[in-house]
Amino acid sequence: MTNTTSTDAAGTDTAAPVRHRHAAGPAIAILRGGTGEHVEDVVATLVDAGVRAIEITTNTPRWREGIAWATERYGTAASIGVGTVLEPRQLDEAAAAGAVFAVSPHLDADIGARAHERGLGWYPGAATPTEIVRAWQLGARAVKVFPAAQLGGPAFLKQVLAPLDFVDVIPTGGIGVDDAAHYLAAGAVAVGLGSPLVGDALTSGDLDALRTRAERLVAGLAR
């Protein structure tokens, strides 16, 4: 699949209005690491607090089981995906477990092709305008701008999207709970949050603190 351009009456190529908004909401919680013991409880707490998109990374113990459990438990009420996809074969396992989207820290056309074969939304990582446009041309449903905070935060995103406003982007990396709304204001369609949101819940099982952060995030994005 390739996102294409259209031609106006003057014969000038313009970006086609192919928009792939993230249907599950403006925040994607990224679950990475831990022992694997608390994955289900963390997912349940996040969804109950209003975070309806969950990415479980391949370097999280029991990631396949976590995706399968979350998909069976929440069905279409939440969007469950796989993260840190480094090889196409991981998409086969994720799709079998019920994932509906796939995220990588980098841009790999082979992963993109397999994601399309498996019917998964593909969110590859990119850091430069060249990478962002290439990811979009290869059919990314949205482009993960990573690491967003270190690249320059909302100011960087706003500058990049001035000429690239046809691309749906999901900034990820170093984004705090109270910073997420600024990225949406800069043009992002969603924001990915890992440790600033999840904290140590995957290792300690501290669900009360997780719920507090998640509810603050949802409230801040709703303003």
List its salient traits.
single chain, 223 residues, alpha/beta, six-stranded parallel beta sheet, three-stranded parallel beta sheet, 11 helices
Detail the topology: elements first, then pairings:
Layout: E1 5-7, E2 13-15, E3 27-31, H1 39-48, E4 53-57, H2 63-74, E5 79-83, H3 88-97, E6 101-103, H4 109-117, E7 121-123, E8 125-126, H5 129-137, E9 143-145, H6 148-151, H7 153-161, E10 169-171, H8 180-185, E11 191-193, H9 195-198, H10 201-204, H11 207-222
Parallel strand pairs: 3-4, 3-11, 4-5, 5-6, 6-7, 8-9, 9-10
Antiparallel strand pairs: 1-2
What is this structure, in a nutshell?
The protein has 223 residues and is of the alpha/beta class. Helices cover 42% and strands 17% of the residues.
Question: Any overview of this molecule?
Answer:
With 223 residues, the protein is of the alpha/beta class. The chain has helices at residues 39-48, 63-74, 88-97, 109-117, 129-137, 148-151, 153-161, 180-185, 195-198, 201-204, 207-222, and strands at residues 5-7, 13-15, 27-31, 53-57, 79-83, 101-103, 121-123, 125-126, 143-145, 169-171, 191-193. The protein contains 11 helices and 11 strands. It has a 6-stranded parallel β-sheet with strand order 7-6-5-4-3-11.
